[in-house]
C-alpha cells in the first residue's frame, strides 16, 4: 500500500492543478473575455468588498504583496476591467471599481463556481457530502492557519 503522506501529497497537488486548469478552460468557454484565473479572482475580491476596494485592501484580501496587486490592478485597468477613482468618503484615498466589462467577467466567474459546485456535489450522496464538508473545512482551517502564521 502506498505511503499515506505521498498519496495525500499527490492528491492535493493534482486537485489544485486540475481545479486551476478546469477554471481556466471554463472561463474561456463561458465568455469571450480574455482573462486569467488570477485576474478573475482579483475582480471577485473587488465585488466581494462591496464593489470597490483600495489596492491595499485587495492585497490583504488576496493575501499577496502590495506590488503584485498594484501591477495586476494596472493591467486590469488597461484591459478595461477596472477603473481607479477617488473615494467619496476620503478624497485622498483611491478606490478600484469594476467597469461594465469587469462586471461581465465577474458574472462569468461566478457562473463557473456555481456550476463547479453543482457538478462536484452531484457525485456524492448526502452522507458523503457531510464527510466532504467536514474534511474540507478541517483542511481549509489547517492551510489558513499555516498561511497566517
Summarize the structure in words.
This protein is mostly helical. The protein is built from 6 helices and 3 strands, in the order ααβααββαα. Strands 1-3-2 form a 3-stranded antiparallel sheet. α1 packs across α5, α2 crosses α5 (100-121) and α3 packs across α4 (66-79). The longest helix is centred in the N-terminal third of the chain and has 27 residues, at 4-30.
According to CATH, what is the topology? Arc Repressor Mutant, subunit A
CATH superfamily: Winged helix-like DNA-binding domain superfamily/Winged helix DNA-binding domain
| Number of DSSP-assigned strands | 3
Task: Summarize the biggest pleated sheet.
Answer: 3 strands, antiparallel
Which descriptor suits the 3D outline?
globular
Instruction: Estimate percent helicity.
Output: over 70%
Radius of gyration: 18 Å
* Low-pLDDT stretches: none
Mean pLDDT, as a whole number?
Answer: 90
Order of helices and strands: HHEHHEEHH
Number of domains: 1
Q: Beta-strand percentage?
A: 5-15%
Secondary-structure-derived class:
mainly alpha
What is the count of helical runs?
A: 6
Give the second-level CATH assignment, the architecture. Orthogonal Bundle
Order of strands across the widest beta sheet?
1-3-2
Terminal-residue CA separation: 34 Å
Amino acid at each position: 500500500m502506498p505511503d499515506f503522506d505521498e498519496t495525500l501529497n499527490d492528491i492535493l497537488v493534482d486537485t489544485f492543478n486540475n481545479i486551476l486548469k478546469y477554471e481556466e478552460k471554463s472561463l474561456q468557454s463561458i465568455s469571450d473575455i480574455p482573462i486569467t484565473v488570477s485576474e478573475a479572482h482579483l475582480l471577485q475580491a473587488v465585488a466581494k468588498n462591496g464593489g470597490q476596494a483600495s489596492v491595499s485592501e485587495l492585497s490583504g484580501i488576496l493575501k499577496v504583496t502590495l506590488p503584485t496587486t498594484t501591477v495586476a490592478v494596472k493591467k486590469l485597468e488597461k484591459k478595461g476591467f477596472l477603473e481607479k477613482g477617488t473615494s467619496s468618503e476620503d478624497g485622498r484615498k483611491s478606490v478600484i471599481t469594476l467597469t461594465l466589462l469587469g462586471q461581465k467577467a465577474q458574472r462569468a466567474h461566478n457562473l463557473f463556481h456555481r456550476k463547479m459546485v453543482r457538478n462536484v456535489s452531484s457525485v456524492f450522496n448526502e452522507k458523503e457530502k457531510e464527510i466532504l464538508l467536514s474534511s474540507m473545512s478541517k483542511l481549509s482551517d489547517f492551510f489558513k492557519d499555516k498561511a497566517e502564521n
